[in-house]
Amino acid sequence: RRANGHAGGASGRWEESPMLLQAWTKSSPAKLLAAQQTLLHRFVRQPLTGSRVAGLNTVDSGQVSDGVTVVLAHGFGSGLGFFYRNFDALLADKRVGRIVAFDWLGMGGSERPDCRSAPRMPILGQLGCNSRFSQEQATNFFIDPVEQWFKELGLSRVLLFGHSLGGYLAARFALKYPGYAEHLVLASPVGFSARPADTLPRSDIPRNLRIIDSLWSANVTPQQLVRVSGHRRGTQTIRRALAARLPNLVGDDADLLAEYLYHITVAPASGEFAMNSLLQPSITKTSAGVYAREPLEPILGGLEAASLRVVYGDHDWMRPANEASARSALAGLRRVADASVEVVPGAGHHLYLDNPVDLHRETLRAIQ
After folding, report:
1. Which contacts of 320-325 are long-range, i.e. CB under 8 A and separated by 24 or more positions?
2. How confident is the model over 227-245, as pLDDT tens digits?
């Protein structure tokens, strides 16, 4: 079936979400998948089959030619539907034979383990709802199901494309499970560089930023703030946030993406706790940014792949803190034949929407 009519049903904690929450947010598993279906049906011509594989919400173009299989992995707080501008354009290139996209565990339309099984940092006073995951367990929460997903789909030697946090996790996946990703593309990835040594203590940062830092450290996520707002205010908040992040989106693009993002955001809390378990904020006298608790630069040397492309937008907020570190990391690679850092013009953090043409060129450059 088309997943521009979705074939998969929601499962896991989704179906058990309290009726009161569903009534307050006017959301449900079925509404999220319907919003995904509407978005993809409106903008993607290629028929897509939807399913749930190893607990992960999945859409698959099927094999349309003899080219490479491209696997798309979204970033924090979004979902596979955000790649709606990329399916047809990539498949139009003869080097691409199939596209498969998935939602990370605990995000999008995938299963959502509760807070006792999700990557939630232990916080004093919240011990009744903590997984007590180590840093390694928090990473494995996301990447281990993907390895099972690859096995069930029979995939190997693919081009794995990950955006933002999805880029960081794609790299961690390729490091732990070599052989699945022959080509690796990290689009505006978080997590290359270590947290700055001159990070200010909380007592020295401005009051408004101190509040954000405190909420972050207490496992309070943006999604939680939208949930408590209810449907009317929540949808308004999402629309404003989307307009600020992607000001060039208008018409159906903006409306359908906002509807889809709203249902993702108010779904039961799970994978969003990666914000604190995998990432940490830093504020210095001259900058503010987000850094991985376990950065990629010191560990990327173990990567085995035919090619690695790290791509940032020219006005990408993730670029200043990570580009130099990424270049340093790639210079030290010994088991990757073709590795480079590239900058896409006319693009910010969401370069797959801002300038998909140039991004696709860089994505496929290593494939003959």
Report:
1. 320/287, 320/289, 321/193, 321/287, 321/289, 321/290, 321/291, 322/189, 322/190, 322/191, 322/192, 322/193, 324/193, 325/192, 325/193, 325/194, 325/295, 325/296, 325/297
2. 999 999 999 999 999 999 9
